[in-house]
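hey so u asked for the seq, here:
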Amino acid sequence: MNAAFSFQRLASVARKEFLHIIRDPATLFFALFIPVLELFMLGYAIDTNVRNISTAVFDQLNNQDSEKLLRQFENSGDFRIVRQVYSEEALTEMIVAGKAKVGLWIRHEYSERLDAKKPTELLILIDGSESSVAGEALNVGNAIALRESLARVLQDQPLPVEARPRILFNPDTRSANFFIPGLMVVMCQMMAIMLSANAIVREKENGTLEQLFMTPVSASELILGKLIPYLVLTLSSFAPSCSL
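ran it, structure tokens below
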């Protein structure tokens, strides 16, 4: 057997494998359809963007101040008020039962203390079982409270420092834009290796592997020749997804 690497022999093995792929509908199905299906399932089913957190409200005040505060929570896009409760026990029960991830408790002295220019409290109960949801609720809740505090202190005066963030490359902050490119690389690697291993096993089952051993093809040429067609096929199946 010639030990020198030959691109001609490699191309011959790859051409032979391409012909096997074309003649085998099952291989075409697994090489073209399954990777794209897994790409969409993993890429779009996994969403790390936290939006519309189910929120229960215990509003002891029920006036314009409390309505304005609750409107800020809803307008943020991170909170979705699902129920109004009328006791502390009911608010806690909503979170314990999993019907709400966040509970807002506006005490009856909220407006009175604000008018007297005294510190007041907004109790935010957060379900910490999901760390990403809890972290987002905590950060946005603190930001809304800080903004309301500044509005009260400045009395409609402009902020000394105003941040104007601009998000580049992914302005909608879609998690799929981050996951899918990485998944494409992993899926190409996995599918190419798996299908190549399956092709070598098929050679063994058909009894043609011994015939390949009798040819001047080296082990590296055989493996690469089996791998390249499936890698090209997997890449071609992902090509339409690159524009999404």
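The mean pLDDT is 83. DSSP finds nine helices and four strands in the chain.
lmk if thats what u needed
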